[in-house]
Amino acid sequence: MRIIVFGATGMVGQGVLDACLRDDVVTGVLVVGRTPTGRSHPKLREVRHGDFADFTAVREQFAGYDGCFYCLGTSALGMSEADYRLVSYDFPLAAARALLAASPDAAFCYVSGTGTDPTGKSRMMWARVKGETENALLELSPRARMFRPGLITPLPGTTAKTKVYTLLYRALTPLAPVLRRIAPRHITSSTDIGRAMIQTLRAGAPHRTLSSADINAMAAVSPGAG
């Protein structure tokens, strides 16, 4: 299968990309981003693109892919609702529309998060916006799947663009085995998200919206597990 990855330089995206490159089921990976991943692999091809609200210039390159793993996201901390909506609603919808225009049968796997509110009643701005995004994506394609992880442990060696996140990754990585034992239904890893996404394309998913427990169960039976 051939996969497009958005957000491959972020914490989740780095683990998802690693899972794709390690899995023999995946034959090709196209990364779309503003900055290079810094990785080199026979299966990997990268497209630099600056305007994530409009993929017209690169849309033709999305043809012939089986699915898209959308991992791009940002914290709502300190952001206005308009700015957060641009990144968390407008960007993924633009990517999904471009993908489906070029590959109508492709699956769209979107990384959301625990606490997302599709009813629009939450007092938390990010939860309402993410809920709107989920609703729009699910309506856009019957093959859209929403991934709602809770706490995510990063791929060892994950780099971040800010010092705070770099320190957080360093703290979480050695604690991962303990955290998984304490609360296995609420914790997953970035690589397991990738494995679960691959499994979604390979064999389907139990639900259109997937929790950390669903993600872990699917990752455990993915061809790349182990």
TrEMBL record:
Pfam families (alphabetical): Epimerase (PF01370)
Domain NAD-dependent epimerase/dehydratase residue range list: 3-80
Location relative to the cell: Membrane
Source species, domain of life: Bacteria
Matching PANTHER family: NAD(P)-BINDING DOMAIN-CONTAINING PROTEIN (PTHR14097:SF8), OXIDOREDUCTASE HTATIP2 (PTHR14097)
UniProt protein name: Epimerase
